[in-house]
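Section 4.2 – Deliverable D4.2 (structural model, holo form)

The reporting period included a commitment to supply a predicted holo structure for the target in complex with adenosine-5'-triphosphate. Inputs used:
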Amino acid sequence: MEAEVEPMPQEPTHLVVMGVSGSGKSTIAELLRKRLGWDFAEADEFHPEANIRKMTQGTALTDEDRWPWLRAMQAWMTEHAAVGESTIVTCSALKRTYRDLLREADGVVLFVHLDGDPAVIGERMEHRSGHFMPKSLLPDQLNTLEPLAPDEGGIRVSIEQTPEEIANETLERLGLA
Ligand SMILES: Nc1ncnc2c1ncn2[C@@H]1O[C@H](COP(=O)(O)OP(=O)(O)OP(=O)(O)O)[C@@H](O)[C@H]1O
Ligand SMILES: O=C(O)[C@H](O)[C@@H](O)[C@H](O)[C@H](O)CO
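Output (structure tokens):
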């Protein structure tokens, strides 16, 4: 008689929707959350008050400002993995070293880099209301950005499509559709 084989338990997965301010992280993550039903966190919720104040006043964050914030996100991801839960997070994750830190979370960490023409991003920031991040910080975000590399685990998706198209492409290319 054939032995019964237990299916392999699926490892928790973290989708990190990344990119510069205004690239559409919150918009796309919300669609992914609706489709996948995974727990969701916005990186901005993890910033200490001082970081938000700094950005509101038009000053870019430094590495020192960002490390505790990234560590808090990594801990949140790991807490979820510990109870078998997958997550979706938005996080600019501009530098590879920042992504290295997030990759240390337990579970599989996949990045979705929302990538596109800075002029389109600037335009979208201009028309957005009620957000603390000034458009004047976009050049610094772009200068700091190290695009997701092919060996990092994840995909780069063009933002020059509708949010629904971006979400569909993401889920299809990651095999999550
Ligand atoms: N694919 C898209 N097409 C048209 N408009 C979009 C698209 N994606 C996002 N937007 C709009 O662009 C603006 C910026 O998007 P969003 O706030 O989601 O970006 P973000 O990356 O989360 O920004 P931040 O990091 O500053 O919080 C919003 O007004 C949003 O409605
Ligand atoms: O790394 C950074 O400089 C910050 O995370 C910013 O990108 C903002 O937090 C965010 O994108 C604005 O909402």
